[in-house]
Structures are given as C-alpha cells and as structure tokens.
Specification:
The protein has 732 residues and is α/β, with parallel strands linked by helices. Among the domains are: 42-151, Nucleic acid-binding proteins (OB fold (Dihydrolipoamide Acetyltransferase, E2P), Beta Barrel); 255-454, P-loop containing nucleotide triphosphate hydrolases (Rossmann fold); 464-647, Rossmann fold. It contains 26 helices and 22 strands. A seven-stranded mixed sheet has the order 6-7-4-3-2-5-8. The two termini are 41 Å apart. The structure holds adenosine-5'-diphosphate and magnesium ion. Residues 265, 267-268, 271, 294, 296-302, 434, 458, 587, 589, 591, 618 line the site of adenosine-5'-diphosphate. One of its GO terms (molecular function) is ATP binding. It holds the Pfam family Helicase_C. Residues 502-529 are annotated as: Disordered. This is Probable DNA 3'-5' helicase RecG.
C-alpha cells in the first residue's frame, strides 16, 4: 500500500469495489478501523475440530474440511449432472451438492473452506451449492499453512476467506501495520496491566500461531473495548454532574408526611435508607440519575411514591411510568387509595392541601384525554401515571420535577437524553427494576447511573416454593398441580396460570406477547409444537381440572377497559384463577394470590420466570410456583428451569439469565455478523478487567478531561459514539 492509509480510510479505497460494497452492506464494515476490528469468530484447525458434528439445519456456517469423495452422475428427471461431494473434518461429515458442477479442483483429500446454509435432505445434513475456497499449493505459504485458520463472521456476499485475504492485505507483512495503527492505549496503562501493543495484538488475533497468541491478543483488545466504554460512561457522569437541575427540598407538613401517616405498615430498614438517599439527592440542584434495584416484592413503589410526594411538596410534578397499561392503572389506583382526599384536590371531597393523581394512558377516550392533558399541562396534576410512551407522546408538563420509570431495564441513555432535550432543566430520574443487575452490567449498561439496592423483603412474607413439573417424564404431576391449585382456592386464595401465547381467534399473527422470551437457540425450531395459548388452556381448565372455579382470562388483545375490569375483579377476589399471558409479568400486586402455574415454562427467560413468580406470596400466605414443561429434566432447558426453581436469589438468576442470553447472542447476533463496537468483552467473564478499566478511565479523565493528550483514545471514543453504541448500551 503506497497511499497514506489511516484507520479512517474507507475500505473502498483499499479493497476491490465489489468486496468493499459487500462488506459495507452486509457486515457494516466501512473503514480500515472496522475491518481490523472485525475479529475472527473462532479458529479452525485442520483435521482436529468437530465443526461438522455440531452444525444445525438452518445455520449459516463456514467450515474447514477435507474432501472425502466426489461422485458425479446425470440427473434422472432433468438435464444436467449432479455432483455429490462428501467432506469431513475430525468429527463429522457433510454432503455438498452441486448441479452441473465444473470445479475440477474438487479432488479427494483437498482441503477447503465451505460456507452456506445447512440444509437437510432425507435426514442428512447437506450444503446445496456452498461457497467454497479450496486451499491450493500457492496458499500453503500464506495463512493457510498456519495451524489456526481464522473463521470470520461472514455474510452471503462476503465469505470468511475474502475477509481473511482483505485483512492480510491490510496487515501487509506485518511491518506496515505499526505505522498504520497508532496505539490508543497509553504506555503506562499497557505496562501496568501487561498488555500487548495494539499492532501485535491485531496481528495475533487475525493471524495467530498458537491459542496463547489468541488469548493474549484478546485480552489486550478487550481492554480497548472496556476502556473506551468506560471513558464514554465516565464522561457522561461528569457531564451529568455539571447539568443544572432544580432542587426539590423536603417540606414538612406536606404530602410526604401525609403519605407516611397513611401507610398501613412500617417501612423496612432498606426502604427508609433508600428514602433518605433519594430525599437528599432530590434536594440538590443537579438532576438525580439513580437506579433502584430491589427484589420482586421488596416494596419499591412506596419508595418512589415518597420521592414523588417530596417533589410535589416542593411545587413540582412527578411522573410515574409503567411498562403496561394494566400496571399503570394499578399504580394510579393504589396511589389514589393511599392518598385518599389528598389525591383529589379540586374535587368536592378533595383536600385542597393535596394534589391530583392523573392517569394518562393511550386508551383514554378523547375527551378524558384532553382533560387529563390539561391537568398535566396546567400543573394541577402533581402525580401523573402513565406508560413508558408518555414521554414520547409529547405530553406537556407545567413543571416536571421527577420521572420514575418502573420495571424498565432498558430505560437507557437515549431515553434520558430525550428527556434532557425537552428543554428547560432536566428532571430528576429514578429507574426501578426488580431484575437485579450483576456488577458488570451495572458498570457498563448502567454505568452512568448511581445505584440503590433494596435487599430486604418486608417481614411476614410467606415465601414461594417452586417446582418443575416435567410432563413427559412425570405425567401424573400435572394432575397433582391442578389439585394443589384447587386446594389453595378452597382455602380462599387465588391463582395465576400463565401461557406464552394468546390463542387462535385471529389465526396467524398471534405472536407471543413478550419480546424477551426464551433464548434464541430454542425459539426458532420448527419441529416443536406451537406454544400453549391462554384461550385454549382456559377452555380446557374450565371443562376439566378446574371446573367450577371462577376463571377468567387476561391478555394483550383485550381492550384496556376489559383488562382493567378483569384486573379489578381479580384484585377484589371475584376471580379465583386468572389465565394470562405475560401481561402479569411485572408489577401486578394482588397479595391474596398464592399459586403461579407457568405453562410451557421453557419458553420464558430466566428473569421473566423470576418476575412471574414474584406475583405470588406478596401477602402473608406462602406461595407455590409450578413450572410446567415438556423439556426433559436432563436437557439444558430442564436444568435452567431447575435452577430457577432452586433459588429465589435474584442476583444468581440474573447471572444465569445473562449466560443463557449470551448463548442466544452467539447463535443470533454474532451469526449475522453485523458490526458492533463491543465484540470481545464479556459481561460474565470480564468483571475484573471492566472494573480496572473503569478505574483507569476515571483517572484519565481526572487529569485530561477532554482527552486532548490522548488523541488515539479520543478517536476510539468518537468511533464508539458514532457506532451502534446505543444499540449495545440499550441491550442486555
Ligand atoms: P415491588 O418492589 O416488587 O414493586 P411493591 O412495591 O409492589 O413491590 O410492594 C409489594 C407489596 O408489599 C405491596 O403490596 C406493598 O403494599 C407491600 N409493602 C411495601 N412495603 C411494605 C412494608 N414495609 N411492609 C409491609 N408491606 C409492604
Ligand atoms: Mg413494582
């Protein structure tokens, strides 16, 4: 390469136009930086690996294999010939099929790389017309001779070996690379943590000789990712700390004191401590950015309500955003009930010293909606309850002082930016989640939030015991499950039965309601029966094992009014058994409910199951959670369910969730090969590295706020910012 190439050079200037276009369009690789940071997914070893044994029908894969046999015969029903090639590696075999094949080089014993979508014909896995690259003698003195052949995330248009060749072109003989890439990591940081220089790391990750090369290179490259991410987050924290907000100091004798007096229980130690933390932060004139994590049922709502009351007392408004309308309605009901006349200021029986609690959801009729919006805009509504969409809909507030986001793990950076962009002084923000956040996630995805934790559950809770009901192995257990449910109802309790799907009223398009379901590796399989549906299960239960009980359904296809009516009836005990989709997943609070039966439990994610289980035993009665599945106990799925049943420790389950999701990632996102800025860093495995990078980022910004002395790092941070950063930050 003679022209001056930098990391920002467009690939179109260094590669052929077809390759460059393909890389841009199908892999999102536009610049030299992108390509150099497009790391191999794995490395194949000639003759040793067992790729072929593992591939699944439908996967798009690249394999390194050796030709075992080649047979060509005329086709029976058509003109032309059919060539069948059997290739194998150390562990498996696969058939390649070509019509009218003319590749003379496909000879027995030849090695090659084959890429395509795995199909199946008469029970045998095969590739029809795969892309391939046969390794010939002239390759032997290049990368092919190496023990480890890099396999890149590739696409239909750009194969792994084309990427390999292009990277080799960029890396040159190795000598040119050092000038091309300036190492963004300061020397001291490298020395302190024993990290390879960038050029060496890139060489080793793309053209390793040993697996130790790969490990050392990965470690160094993970540092780039971690440090860049932590610098971004630290910069945000700093910017946030400089932002002007409005102090909302505590005022004695106001709504907050009234709430405290009205509470039917004593606050737990944790609720009190977090309350103090929030009270102090609301009193500062920088906007609060805080995450409140607390086990399901730990009583986050009242903590939020007290913060909202403080803001109202200081003359501002508070918005409480829930993930569903059902939950928004429940919150509004609960808060109104607790405030009594204090929540009805302006009404005949209202207390003029109080405020109004206004529910503002998409399902309000036009007139009611206008009234509600006016109350909000004119500031008469001190407490506004709605769904997460509320802020996107451009509702005007007179003086929004606090936004509480309930049960939203993904209320991330962008939404907070949007709040800030609304003009005026940004409100304080409190995000609440019952999904405990592992430390690494807290340091990354939520890295610019302060975190409070409610560890303790209010005392006197009965606790939930959970069991897996494996219907295939133990057909009798399901009958016993319904018996147990009947016993609870007979004792005056109530139950939920949750199914993954609504059912066949409209036929196709009846998607599972949740976005996060089970990991990808289990979702796309065509050989499974469709998930159980609320409507079918309700009918079967009514006619069978639960005949005579008062049973009703709740799902996303009902109108908001219908949903609300059912929720009320369930809350007041007029319904014994609620057969529902995951609309009841979060937040729903009916203390008398003690049984949760999850049908097709394997279709739900770990955190979801934990959330669902959190719907029962919210009062003093002990609860029972039954995870019904036809997955064998010994399968990974069965074991995942067993793990959920075995522990009620949300932190442990959050970790498990992360692990299973990552499996999904490996097979899903990574398979598609799209570029993303964070490739190597693992939230599960790299806790120590992330935490060291966090400390380094903090120190760096302390002495070099704008990264003026570290242009390489500044460039990395800028690249992350323009990247699919948001996507990653919002993920997990
Ligand atoms: P979550 O943290 O899951 O959102 P909630 O705020 O819905 O939990 O509270 C769960 C239940 O516990 C509610 O019925 C609530 O009224 C009750 N609760 C909250 N705090 C206490 C407490 N200190 N003592 C007893 N019950 C409480
Ligand atoms: Mg809640």
């Amino acid at each position: 390469m003679t022209m001056a190439v930098t990391l920002e050079t467009p690939l179109a200037r260094v590669l052929g136009p077809k390759t460059a276009t393909g890389m841009a369009e199908t892999l999102g690789l536009h610049t030299v930086r992108h390509l150099l940071r497009h790391y191999p997914r794995r490395y194949a070893r000639r003759g040793e690996q067992a790729d072929l044994a593992d591939v699944q029908v439908g996967d798009r894969v690249t394999v390194l294999a050796q030709v075992r046999s080649v047979t060509t015969r005329p086709m029976r029903n058509r003109r032309g010939s059919l060539t069948e090639v059997v290739v194998g590696d150390g562990g498996g075999r696969m058939k390649l099929v070509f019509f009218n094949h003319r590749h003379g080089q496909l000879k027995v014993n030849a090695w090659g790389m084959f890429a395509g979508t795995v199909g199946e014909y008469r029970g045998e896995k095969q590739f029809a017309h795969p892309d391939m690259h046969l390794i010939d003698a002239s390759d032997e003195d290049t990368d092919w001779a190496r023990a480890l052949v890099p396999i890149y995330p590739a696409s239909k248009d750009v194969s792994s070996w084309v990427i390999q060749k292009s990277v080799r072109l960029l890396l040159g003989a190795g000598g040119g690379l050092a000038e091309l890439v300036e190492d963004p990591l300061p020397e001291e940081i490298r020395a302190r943590h024993g990290l390879l220089p960038l050029a060496a790391a890139l060489l080793d990750i793309h053209r390793p000789t040993t697996t130790e090369d790969v490990e050392r290179a990965e470690h160094r490259l993970k540092w780039d990712e971690a440090l860049t991410l932590q610098l971004t987050l630290a910069a945000r924290r700093r910017a946030a700390a400089l932002e002007p907000g409005t102090a909302r100091p505590r005022r004695p004798g106001g709504l907050l004191d009234a709430v405290d007096a009205a509470l039917p229980f004593a606050l737990t130690e944790g609720q009190r401590a977090v309350g103090e933390e929030l009270a102090a932060e609301l009193d500062r004139d920088q906007p609060m950015h805080r995450l409140l994590q607390g086990e399901v049922g730990s009583g986050k709502t009242v903590v939020a309500l007290r913060a909202m009351a403080q803001v109202v007392d200081a003359g501002g408004q508070a918005a409480l955003l829930a993930p569903t309308e059902v939950l928004a309605a429940q919150h509004a009901r609960g808060i109104r009930q607790l405030l009594g006349p204090l929540g009805r200021a302006g009404e005949i029986d209202g207390d003029p010293a109080g405020t109004r609690v206004t529910l503002l959801t998409g399902s309000l009729k036009a007139a009611a909606r206008r009234t509600a919006r006016a109350e909000v805009a004119e500031g008469r509504a001190g407490i506004v309850v709605g769904t997460h969409a509320l802020l996107q809909e451009g509702v005007e507030f007179a003086d929004l002082g606090l936004v509480v986001v309930d049960e939203q793990h993904r209320f991330g950076v962008e939404q907070r930016d949007a709040l800030r962009a609304k003009g005026g002084r940004p409100p304080h923000v409190l995000v609440m989640t019952a999904t405990p956040i592992p430390r690494t996630v807290a340091m990354t995805v939520y890295g610019d939030l302060e975190i409070s934790t409610l560890r303790q559950l209010p005392s006197g809770r009965g606790g939930v015991s959970s069991s897996v009901v494996p219907v295939v192995e133990r057909p009798g257990w399901i009958d016993r499950a319904w018996e147990r449910l009947r016993e609870e109802v007979a004792a005056g309790r109530q139950a939920y039965v949750v199914c993954p799907r609504i059912g066949d009223v409209t036929g196709p398009g009846d998607e599972p309601e949740d976005a996060d379901g089970a990991p990808d590796d289990e979702q796309g399989r065509s050989d499974r029966r469709p998930p159980l549906a609320v409507l079918d299960v309700a009918e079967a239960l009514r006619a069978g094992p639960l005949a005579g009980l008062r049973l009703d359904v709740l799902h996303g296809r009902m109108t908001p009014d219908e949903k609300d009516a059912v929720m009320r009836a369930f809350a007041t005990g007029e319904i014994d058994v609620l057969v529902a989709t995951t609309v009841v997943e979060v937040g729903v609070d009916v203390p008398n409910a003690t049984v949760m039966v999850v049908m097709d439990a394997d279709r739900f994610g770990v955190s979801q199951l934990h959330q669902l289980r959190g719907r029962v035993a919210r009062g003093t009665h002990a609860g029972l959670c039954l995870l019904v599945t036809d997955a064998p106990s010994a399968s990974p799925t069965g074991q995942r369910l067993a793990a959920v049943a075995a522990t009620s420790d949300g932190f442990e389950l959050a970790r498990l969730d992360l692990e299973t999701r990552r499996e999904g990632d490996v097979l899903g996102a990574a398979q598609s090969g799209r570029r993303s800025a964070i490739k190597l860093l693992s939230l599960l495995e790299d806790e120590e590295l992330i935490s060291q990078a966090r400390a380094e980022a903090h120190a760096l910004l302390g002495t070099d706020r704008g990264l003026a002395d570290h242009p390489g790092l500044a460039a990395e941070v800028a690249a992350l910012a323009t990247d699919e950063r948001a996507q990653w930050l919002e993920k997990a």
